[in-house]
Amino acid sequence: MAIDSIKPINVADEMSKSFLEYSMSVIISRALPDARDGLKPSQRRILYAMLNDLSLSPAKAHLKCARIVGDTMGKYHPHGDSSIYSTLVNMAQPWTMRETLVDGQGNFGSVEGDAAAAMRYTEARLTHMGAAMMIDLEKETVDLRPTYDETREEPVVLPASIPNLLVNGGTGIAVGMATNIPAHNMGEVIDGVCARIGDPQISIEDMQKIIKGPDFAGACEIRGFKGIDSYFRTGRGSIKMRGTMEIEEKASGIAILTITQVPHGVNRAILQQRIAELVREKILVDISGMRDLSDDQTRIEITLKRDARPQVVMNQIFKLTSMETSFGVNMLAIHERRPKQMSVIDCLDAFIEHRREVIIRRTRYLLNKAEARAENLEAFLIALAHIDDFIKVIRDSRNRDEARTRLKAYSFPEKTAESLGILLREQASIIDGQYIFTDRQVNAILELRLYQLTGMERDKVKAEYDKLLAEITDYLDILGSEPRVLAIIKDELLLIKDKHATPRRCPILPDEGEIAIEDLIANDGMIVTLSNKGLIKRTPSAEYRVQARGGKGVRGMETRNKNDEKDFVEHLFSAQAHDYLMFFTNTGRVFVERVYGLPEGSRSSKGRSIKSVLNLGPDEVVAATQRLERQLDEDGNDITLTAKDKFLMFATRSGKVKKTALADFKNYRKDGIIAIKLDEGNTLIDVRLTSGDDEVILITRRGLSLRFTEDQARAQGRATAGVGGIKPVNGDYVIGMAIVNDEGTLLVASENGIGKRSPFSDYRAQTRAGKGIITMKCNEKTGDVVGASMVLPEDELMLMTSDGQSIRIRCADIREAGRNTSGVKLVSMKPGVTLLDIARVIPDDEDEILEDEAVDGEEAPAESTEDAPEESGSEE
């Protein structure tokens, strides 16, 4: 080299330029995944080598990893065998990848951080998801580029039939930047892609209803929604992950905390070391022992000291260890050959555009193949139609070249081709009305075999040609129709979802500060009571002990007011703490409250005024109540008051009934809304939840009943009065309503504590607005009917008396009898005390049975009666 060719340069400039080139090489070619297929170059090259060079499809046998690493390193990725093997191992670990791309056989490490065995001991092949990344690769769907030594070619990107960037996520540290993309549920992401295709303007809020958030390979709880919303919009956010622990109380009184899940990416062995370290440092002072019982599932048992408070220890573990950690989302990927911060919508758009390009290129490839084949079949059809002429031309030729030349000069009229059913394509050679063979067609004719000259073969050629023409038409339609391309993308994704999607592993729960109040309150059974003076309370159902039929009872609500006047319970029912309560008043309004929002009191406490809970008017009182069990949809949304197949059936004292859709009450207000229009002098007796196809029984004070089908009363709006249900006579009035259940019985109870259960089959269906039939013979011994309810044998019953006593009994202890009998004694009462109300109670396993307080029930004499006069008809 001549001295004159050496030029001085600035070292700082050269270093800056060289470092920039190195940085871009690391960013583009090593550390960051491509937004289209979600793979780094090393991952892409391993998968390509496994399929293209080694044919390791899911149906083939496993092959030594050393062979896979060797082929990848020698042909595509000359960066060292250890880095290639670690990448291969990573794609095969189910606790690392949400959908593994490699099916490993042998020791591929463990979630505790154990290293995989040497590559000479392990074997691998592609999984179905790994193979799906390369479907149609041979159909020129992606660009190819020369490998590092320019001896072969490798794909720039894989066709990627699944949105791998979001499904498996990815991590990488480049120069001056890093990426950390969380994994998501494949079924949700596919649904998100389809939703984006169907509605290109879909909002982030709507997309979050489809793609709930991260779904890591390691099952754990995800806490909070703010971080999810942040990275959905900007590509950056922080996700809080928390493991799960269960509390178990031993008979000895010692509590055990069992860790059943650790956050994704947390090493169980290191977690235990940290807990042990905190115990040694006397930071966790209530732990007496710990043992690891984990296998494929996590199970770490932590034994607490006898006087320890399990919830406190649990909170300390969450705070001081990696049982609660965070995942910093930074969705950085290569898009259009440059790093880009991408939101979830950006990732979906990049995948959709990539798949659109793949479908178009695949269709063009198939079109070219079909047209080339159709071109040959056209020559076959013409040759077979003039076989004698062609045989003569070939036979008279001295060699193949002369035969080719003579056939090339041979032509047919255009009409001859049309008569053979040949669709003249743009590629057909027509000169001066003559069909001229192409070089490809001449070669195809020369290669015809003798057996192809039979009539059957000619029919096969024509059938294949017609099929190809239909395919060509379809391919051209796809290429000319954007909606068809997008529809193909959706159909192929949904097919993969149906075959390979798995349920979500990581539930997403509110974080502190985002927690709904019901998530802070145990959903325990409650007994809600409302007295005649308007005192309301909720009491844990466990405070009411179960007794045998005929027991004397335990002290219930204290019902003396300030003026020493007797108060008594008018409404009593069982509910769960998260349930909704609808309070219907004598003025026809309805209020909606949650059970946990009611004042809590002991069994013997008075409760608080209902007016401190509901915004009642001066003369307004609660006439009826209805419990609505809280219901959630698959997304965790509360749908209790929006169910379209639920109705409320109203029954009034005068015998009118009304049916209204439950959804009509979804927009309730704190000050109440109109529920029913009541005539002057009429009051509301009961409200029941129905399905629209139920049967209803109305029961009157004098022991009459009427059963009718719900469809006899059409659904009406809230501000309506209803239609006739039963016609009470001689001062009688309705006291109760029940919904027919063939598995249960109708229980009626009288004011003197007599009751019975009768099968619903004893009550024939009638037309509403009649007088009804007898359900209980009322006399001086029984007194009038005070309550009626549908009960099941496993149900329990709460009875409340006028002196405030309560008793809880099993319905199975009440003898079943016909409707024209009087029944048996349900409760023993002092002289002058009467039974006020009955209610079904949710059984509680912790209830105590007090057999020593039970007395044998005395059965009242049965008296035969005849049905009361029946009157049919309807009244609108």
UniProtKB/TrEMBL annotation:
Q: Which GO terms describe its molecular function?
A: ATP binding; DNA binding; DNA topoisomerase type II (double strand cut, ATP-hydrolyzing) activity
- Tell me yes or no: is Cell inner membrane among this UniProt entry's keywords: no
**Location of the active site:** Y121
- Report the Pfam families cross-referenced here: DNA_gyraseA_C, DNA_topoisoIV
Is Isomerase among this UniProt entry's keywords? yes
Which SMART domains does this one have?
TOP4c
Gene Ontology BP annotations: DNA topological change
Q: Which NCBIfam families match?
A: gyrA, PRK05560.1, PRK05561.1
Q: Give the protein family.
A: Belongs to the type II topoisomerase GyrA/ParC subunit family.
Name of the protein in question: DNA topoisomerase (ATP-hydrolyzing)
